[in-house]
Amino acid sequence: MALELADYVSYAGLPFKHEGRYLRSQEHDSLIIDTRKNYFIWNSQGLAGNLSQFIKAYYGISDREMHFRLKAFTKTNPQQKVAVKADYTTKSAVGPVAPLDAAGMAYLTQYRHLDSRLITFARAQGLLGSDGYHNVIFNWFDAAGILVGQDVQGTVINRQRCPKHGSLKQIKAGSKPHYGFNVRFRGTFRHLYVFESPIDLLSYWQMYVRELSGSQLLSLSGASAKMQTINDYLLTQPALPAYLHLAPDNDVAGRALIEKFQHMRLITPHQTCQNLVEWSGAKDWNAQLQPAKAGPYTKLTFDMQTFDQFQLFNKLRECLS
């Protein structure tokens, strides 16, 4: 049971009028609530979502203030108390989901600043969907096109419940071990790019799409054993790519991933790729995308030895500054 938008409108005395299954704001013509699907769309603002997002958008308030209003609502409406936790899903099993909805589109384009054309294309390819709580679902497909796993990305920003990421992040139960969200481009497979999350993967795709012919992109977000995930993914391919590009976050964990990678051999001693590092000046690829959505975008590409020298130079510069 999810928190009902229609009940909140009645409780708060907001000026909405009924139009069949919809409620339309009498103050903002483009703001409507779908009472059957229990979410709002505010076309002029490019916003959509559930009750929590509605309260923030309607009143223009912070997460903290929104939670105070939500708590007051549930106190005066006991039948809604059980629904508070339902806005945050428990782990569900891998399976078909609905196409990406308006709340998911708004999160990816408004909050993550991804291009709506890219998201529309990815949705049409079946890569993106939505669950009953308006979370974004990233579908993992294997080489045969079979659904083998799913990431869940919440569209509600709530740093009290999700202090680490700010929103819900999960891997659905039953997802294939040592696998992840991936995208395959046309052409002979020559490049594998490896990212820490689906959002970073999509951000890189948007910024560097002209470079990606003959490439595959892989997210490690669901992988506890990241090196094994890369290895197992490559073993599912009919041939190895010529180049393997590690593109982690620009932080301590990202550097640790690269260091670990340097000391491990993938596949077999007789089958190797040239290993490269794709390095962003921002903390991650989505952070690089956001300030300059139209480009130009900058990145650095290193072989492993040059990356070590680059890191050493930066450490020396920090010590001397």
UniProtKB/TrEMBL annotation:
Domain DUF3991: 106-177
InterPro entries with a match to the protein in the record: DUF3991
Pfam short name (any one): DUF3991
Coiled-coil regions listed in the entry: none
Protein name according to UniProt: LtrC-like protein
Lineage: Bacteria, Bacillati, Bacillota, Bacilli, Lactobacillales
